[in-house]
Specification:
7 strands, 3 helices, about 140 residues, alpha/beta, five-stranded mixed sheet, about 20% strand, two-stranded parallel sheet
């Protein structure tokens, strides 16, 4: 006599909820680690200044003109000719007589281009001119 009871084995089941959780974690991981399209930027090496002043936010944002190391002009990271910059300066002063011109020039930019830009600002009757610099390293 055999008194053993034969239990029927149930078929193995897959827990779908756990698989969905793992899948969501993998998707999030892939989204975070993918490289995004890089925006075009302008690389400048700013000159150092030990007397640089920090500028705060104000009601009158400056018109920023950048000069690259080869002497090319940029306005809002867009290449511009000098004639276009002059026209923008005159139009900016017509809209806002208190317009501030901010020059963001590379330290290797030709000095003549900066002087030319300053003269154009004076001709457009811009009263305030600022230049971007980086803090000088402490010795």
């Amino acid at each position: 006599m055999n008194f053993r009871v034969h239990k029927r084995r149930s078929a193995p089941t897959v827990i779908i909820v756990a698989l969905i959780d793992v899948l969501i974690v993998l998707v999030i991981f892939l989204m975070v680690t993918t490289t995004f399209k890089q925006q075009q930027s302008l690389r400048l090496s700013l000159p150092q200044s030990s007397q640089a002043q920090k500028s705060g936010a104000n009601d009158n944002p400056p018109l920023v003109v950048s000069i690259g190391p080869d002497g090319e002009f940029f306005e809002n990271k867009t290449p511009r000719t000098f004639d276009q910059i002059e026209a923008d300066l005159r139009a900016g002063v017509a809209k806002n007589p208190q317009l501030v011109l901010a020059i963001n020039a590379d330290e290797k930019a030709p000095w003549g281009k900066m002087v030319k830009l300053r003269d154009a600002a004076a001709a457009a009757k811009i009263k305030t001119l600022v230049a971007f610099t980086k803090d000088a390293g402490k010795p």
